[in-house]
Amino acid sequence: MDAEVPQFPPLDARPLQDTICLFDVDGPLTLPRLSATPETLETLRKLRQKCAIGFVGGSDLKKQEEQIGKPAGVPVTTLFDYCFSENGLTAYKLGQALESTNFISYIGEDDYKKLVSFCLHYIADLDIPIKRGTFVEFRNGMINVSPIGRNASTQERNDFEAFDKKAKVREAFVAKLKQEFGHLGLTFSIGGQISFDVFPTGWDKTYCLRHLESEAQKPGGITYKNIHFFGDKTFEGGNDYEIFTDPRTIGHTVMNPNETIVALKELFDI
Ligand code: M1P
User: Fold this and answer.
1) Given ligand 1 and candidates 195, 204, 229, 256, which is best to mutate, with the most ligand atoms within 8 Å of its CB?
2) CB contact set of 160 (below 8 Å; sequence gap of 6+)
3) pTM, whole model, 2 decimals?
4) Which of 46, 48, 96, 150 could bridge to 270 as Cys pair (CB 3.0-4.6 Å)?
């Protein structure tokens, strides 16, 4: 990280001060699991002169650091006004951490142990072309479960995604988990290529809107009247669906960074 930390007008001095643009990461800002391009970073920089910007991703902050902070050469928390990792369970405003809660305190150690043990047994018995490592990733606000394992390479990810379109390994796994753990009030969301997320119902991407609402109540806080959300999995069952259809947001479907750039140019003349 050696580039200069970017400077921006204060939030209440931007031309569109009651507008915020929130971006899902994989798809709208980067190709899956890859890095943001200079063109995307430059578009975000221009947009941030006009209104507030934030990301809301399912992954943890470490991944967004790799995908967006690293290519920019500065911490990702300096590139956005709001950073919402794990759907907002880890949240930053202007580089400062906001208060949040976590998955373990919701579910409790005993049920958590049962859930993880069940997943690991289930994966052990799966007959799929390859398995790598890190089958359950523990995050602040969720767990991420991957039959092939999160250590898979990009090529292995692509292969598994294609395989799973037919084999529906994740769909069957989720159906079984719903049967076994349905009483815990959990949502199982297939959002990416090789895994699914498990989190308390309601802790989907709309969770981040709670932070915007509570920040608005603080002295000098801003109420965003226009909350634009840009996502790719905006269809029912996709992990952007809830925030995309939420009455508090204006939803945009964009499948890749180029589509995002085109949409931003049209909407904000940047
Ligand atoms: O952002 C979408 C998903 O991206 C990753 O999924 P996968 O590794 O399966 O491609 C994960 O970080 C997941 O949590 C996230 O929802």
Assistant:
1) 195
2) 128, 129, 130, 147, 148, 152, 193, 194
3) 0.83
4) 46
